[in-house]
Write a structure and sequence with these properties.
292 residues, alpha+beta, 5-stranded antiparallel β-sheet, globular
């Protein structure tokens, strides 16, 4: 896979978009701390969103090219997991990290259409870290995978999660909080002792071509319209016709949006990197019935 970014472009992205300073010193003295700083600030500034693919549905429905991904991320428009984590892989590679792509299965669908990143040899030889800036969940650090059976419990914003190892398979579990979550539970969710099994993956590295068919299948389905970011490490999202905001107590406040005009205005206020005509096109293709 050809490099998407040169070292100079990667450093410029950290400096100009993420506002990270002293990059050469951090690369030399503490790459692990720099990695976590990148993950944290990236999720604050660049949204997980489906606006792009919905706005071109039926006209230019395709997997993002490398040029698409680069343009979307550098403009802070973001994208789906494929866009985010393919970019992150190239970004980290250009900075000198040892990385590969990884395929994940969200909510046991056996689709393997979620893309994540594995970082190797970060602190010591043969260590391994899980990185994911494209799930839409608060994920502000790299997760070391060197535990025997179960990771420590992590808290990121409103979400509490852990990782579990069973043989060669790893799974990501989220603490169930029915009154304070982005999405409701589904009947098919696997819940054990108050934890929901959210995702599974192995450590097998994948080339980008592996994701072609899974992503084509994903894009053939009706993708919900959404934009999710974490400014100040707090959830800010528009999901369909609802505005979600995490307050200072870590509680998610939900507000119903009553008209197309209000929805367009909220996107313009909270996600101004999207042109209004792109937002309007995506909304029209969703065919929402707004409450009167």
């Amino acid at each position: 896979m050809a490099m998407m970014l040169s070292h100079e472009e990667a450093v410029r992205f950290l400096t100009d978009v993420l506002k990270i300073d002293s990059i050469p010193d951090k690369l030399t003295n503490d790459k692990a701390a720099l990695l976590n700083e990148i993950i944290n600030l990236y999720q604050q500034k660049i949204p997980f969103q489906s606006i792009t693919v919905i706005s071109r549905r039926g006209e230019d429905q395709r997997i993002s090219t490398m040029d698409d991904i680069k343009a979307q991320i550098l403009s802070t428009q973001g994208g789906l997991c494929y866009d985010h984590n393919v970019f992150m892989k190239h970004l980290l590679e250009a900075l000198g990290f040892d990385v590969c792509l990884n395929a994940c299965d969200i909510q046991m669908t056996n689709s393997h259409d979620h893309v994540s990143v594995l970082v190797k040899n970060l602190v010591k030889p043969k260590d391994l870290y899980y990185v994911d800036v494209g799930s839409g969940d608060p994920f502000f650090r790299a997760i070391p995978l060197d535990f025997d059976k179960e990771s420590p419990v992590y808290k990121c914003g409103f979400q509490v999660y852990k990782f579990v190892k069973e043989g060669k398979e790893f799974s990501w579990w989220q603490k169930v909080n029915r009154s304070n979550s982005i999405l409701p539970l589904n009947a098919e969710d696997i819940i054990i002792d108050g934890w929901k099994k959210y995702m599974t993956f192995t450590l097998e590295p994948r080339e980008i071509e592996y994701f072609r068919d899974p992503m084509i299948n994903f894009l053939s389905r009706k993708v919900p319209m959404r934009a999710v970011a974490y400014p100040g490490q707090k959830l800010l999202a528009i999901l369909g016709t609802s505005l979600l905001h995490e307050n200072d107590e870590g509680k998610i406040e939900k507000t119903k949006i009553g008209s197309k005009e209000e929805l367009v205005g909220l996107y313009g206020k909270h996600f101004p990197q999207f042109p209004a005509d792109m937002i309007e096109t995506a909304i029209d293709k969703m065919k929402y019935n707004f409450e009167k």
